[in-house]
Write a structure and sequence with these properties.
This protein has one helix and ten strands; from the N terminus they run βββββββββαβ. The chain starts with a strand and ends with a strand. It is globular and about 40 Å long. It has a six-stranded mixed beta sheet with strand order 2-10-9-4-5-6. The chain has a four-stranded antiparallel beta sheet with strand order 1-3-8-7, with no helix packed on it. β4 and β5 form a beta hairpin. The chain has 128 residues and is mainly beta.
């Protein structure tokens, strides 16, 4: 069974770049057909898809982030990392990494469904 674990800072200052890493066990991130995504839930709001990296290394991002996000991977460590630049307090949220069987599911289309293919989530606060 796949297991995903998010790691990163609890607190980030405004204008800095947030880096979160997802360590995957039980499945290779290069396995054909899977998509590895980042999703967040701001306080009092719904789930928001941020971006994904496919098994091929192809990436896709939510337009709402206006180019602030990038996702990279380290296949030797079976990890993928989200970088979110120029953060503001509105980026405060619980951040999740997930494994999905296709691009639409990776984009929470039609909706995000939290299950065993998600990490437990990590709280990130943006504050000075």
């Amino acid at each position: 069974q796949v297991h995903l674990q998010e790691t990163g800072p609890d607190l980030v200052k405004p204008s800095q770049t947030l880096a979160l890493t997802c360590t995957v066990s039980g499945e290779s991130i290069t396995t054909n057909s899977y998509f590895w995504s980042w999703i967040r839930r701001p306080p009092g709001k719904g789930m928001e898809w941020l971006g994904y990296i496919a098994h091929s290394g192809y990436t896709n991002y939510s337009p709402s982030l206006q180019g602030r996000a990038s996702i990279s991977r380290d296949t030797s460590k079976n990890q993928f990392t989200l970088h979110l630049s120029s953060v503001t307090p509105e980026d405060t949220a619980v951040y999740y990494c997930t494994r999905q069987p296709g691009p639409y599911q990776a984009m929470c289309n039609p909706r995000c469904i939290r299950d065993d293919n998600w990490g437990q989530g990590t709280q990130v606060t943006v504050s000075s």
